[in-house]
Here is the input.
Amino acid sequence: MSEPAPPQDAQAPSEDDEIGLLDLALVLAKHKALVLGLPFGAAVVAAIVSLLMTPVYTGIARVLPPQQSQSTAAALLGNLGAVAGIAGGSLGIKNPNDLYAGMLKSRSVADRLIERFKLREAYDADTADDARKALEKRTHITVGKDGIIVIEAEDEDPKQAAAMANAYVEELDRLNDTLAVTEASQRRLFFEKQLRLAKDGLADAEVSLRKTQEKTGLIKLDEQGKAIIEAVAGLRAQIAVREVQLGAAMRTFATESNPDYVRMREELSGMRAQLARLEKSAPGGEGGILVPTGKVPEAGLEYVRRLREVKYGEAMFELIARQYELARLDEAKNSSIIQSLDRAVPPERRTSPKRALITVLTAVVALLVAVLAAFVREAMEKTRRDPEGAQRLDLLRAYLRW
Here is the structure.
C-alpha cells in the first residue's frame, strides 16, 4: 500500500526558502560594488590610521607579597595580660595580597610616580587629579590565583614603561617599610609607643627619687640608720685623735704658724662642722651627704614611695623593651619577604595598536554595513517602481521636511 503524497502546502516553505536565499544572493550580486568596495576601503583606511597611531609598550613586573606566618613573639604576648589583649586585637591581616594591591593603587604611590617621571607634563594634564586618572588608565594591577601581583604599566617609550613598572615595586617596598601592614609591624608600633610612655614614666620616677635624695640625703634606705650611727661614732673618735695630735703639736712646735699645725687645725675644724651637720635635727635642715639623725623616719617614708615608683617603672620598662625587641626581630625577618619575581624589562613588541585586529574588525563591520545598505537600497528601488509605494515614499519625505 503506497503512502499518500504530502500536501502541497507542506512543500511551500522549502520552495519559499530557496527563493528567499536566491533573492538575497541576487541583491548582493547586484550591489557587489558596495558590498565588496566598502569593506575593502574601510580596511585600507583602518590600516593607514593604525600605522599613524603612536605605538604603546607595556612593562610587566611580578611581585610576591609577604606571606603571613606565626611570629616568634606571638606566644609571649600573654606575659603582658591586658596589655597583650589590646595589642592582639588589631593583629592579623586576612588577605595580604589584596591589601598590597590596594597599596599599589593608592594615591600616595601615584603621586610619587607622577613626580618621579614628570607624568603631569608627559600626559599634558592640567591638574594632578587629571594626571592620576591618566596614570590609572595606563596601569593595570591584578592579583592572580597563585597570589602573585602582576603590575602592567603602559607608555610610549618601552624603557620608561619598564621603569614605571619597577618603580611600583620600589614604592611598594618603601610603603611597606613605612606602614604597619604585618603582625610584627603592628606589634612593633604598639610596643614602641608603650615603651616610650614607660621610659617617660621611669624618667619622671627617677627624677623624683633624685630630688628626694637631694632633699633628705638618703642613698640606701636599709643600712642608712646603721651608717649614720657608725659615722657619728667614727667622726667623734677622729676628732678626739685630732685634738690629742693638735695638743702634742703645740708642745712640739713653738709657733701656731707652722704649716703642719695649721693643716691639723683646719682638718679638726672641718670634722667638727661635719659632726654638727650630722647631729643637726632641726626640721627643714638641708643636710649633706648623710641624713640628719632627727629626720630618718620621715625621710625614709618618702624615700620608700619614690623608690617603689622607680622599681615599678624599671620592671615595666624591661618587660615592654623585651617585647619591643622581639617585634623588631620579627619585623626585620618579615620585611625582606617582599620579592620581585620578575623585574620589568623594556618590551620588544608593542602592546597597541593591534593593527591586524583593527583592520579585520573594521572590514567585518564595514561588510555588515554594506550588506545592510545593499538591502536598503534594493528596497528603495522596489518602492519607487511601485506607484503606491512611491506615493508613500513621497509622503514620508514630506513628513521628514516638516
